[in-house]
Structure prediction request, 441 residues.
Amino acid sequence: REALGKKGAMKASHPEDEEETLHPVAALIQEAAAGNNDTLFDHSFSNNPLVASPAQAARYLVARQAFSIGFGKSHPFYFSDSTMIRGYTVLATGASLFETLMLNLVIYNKQTPVVVPKEGDDLPAWERAQLEQPDKNGTRVRGYLDYLTWQSRRIHLIAEGDPPMVRHCQLLQNLKLPDPPPLDPFKCYVTNKEEGLKPRGIDPAKALWRDSHTLFQQVDASIKRPDAFNLLARIENARRDGEIHARPGYFFNIYGLSTEAGKAAKVTLWSCERLPLPLAYLEDQILTEKLHEALLLAESVCKKLMTSIRALAKRLLSPESDKPNSRQPDETKDVGPLARSFNAEEFFWSQLEAPFKQLLVALPNDPRTDEHDDVYYGENELPRWARMLHDAAQSAFNVVTRSLDTSSRSLKAVAAVERQFRAGLSAALSDYFQTSTGGEQ
Prediction:
């Protein structure tokens, strides 16, 4: 091997290598500080490269096959997305590896979850007598097992020393998914008018739990929940009928990443959220709608908060802005940036993740039946949630106002806006602060 080049790559001396570039092993690691990756988790440098044991390199290889972004030149054609890059993935978790595997089984036949074009052709990659060759137009997926072991990259590990350690590798494009790719049973899909079903992705500005109701619902035609949840719904039905012994709830993890707009290969956010999963949500649409109501209420309170923060920013910039013919600050250039600088919205949502998880578990245990035998949920839990929202919004508002100076200008602005804020907050939550006898809580 020749010496390291300017970009930390080496040249292979073997003419049979299809691609000459020899990369440091960090090229296998999405989170490593290699190339244009941000140093989110890793602070290694080119002059002090990472070294991997064979066991570590094997795990990196498996991860790279599933989490590889389609961007950049390669051989025999440009890099393309691997199976788990677009959209987040959900995984139910049990008390053991066996239980986790059983909870994530899906119905497997010639038609689902991936159509098998030819009997006996759906094999994992290591059982194939002849491997598929890369095709820039896309390679047909031969079934679910083929999809689960999809070889998106050709990877050559270079081991050196005794005991052997992996310092370098070669990384090339291999199989490209067809367009459109198969529907992944562990992803949530939304309908795009131009492109059909598209996997729901990570929003860097919004925690995944704030859209959790979309993962549970089963009636919205524009949203397709993960197929893996359909098995869990069957488990819940069988449990209720006494056919099997199972718990009424488990947990599930949501994995995903997002990339910077215009820079498709630059990862800006990794996300792994763990949420409780009462199985009743997968079968009871009324319960799911009540959860949606709770989330909409939180969004409504957040809007009230941010309206008041913008009003505060406007008064700080121009104390006489509410008077006729007074100078009005620019909403886009002045008011908006100042309001965002207070970070009130981020502080509001950061207080609610733990209370939401509590609500998620408690809501199925809070049913009520009326005189027509119709079931309702949330008579006790939604008022508690509303109180949490009230306190979180008030706390966020207080953090902002306490960060201001004590000038008369600031004090007057706070006094004027705070009255409006409290009135708007009470109006938004008043229906949930009524007791069963009609009094205020």
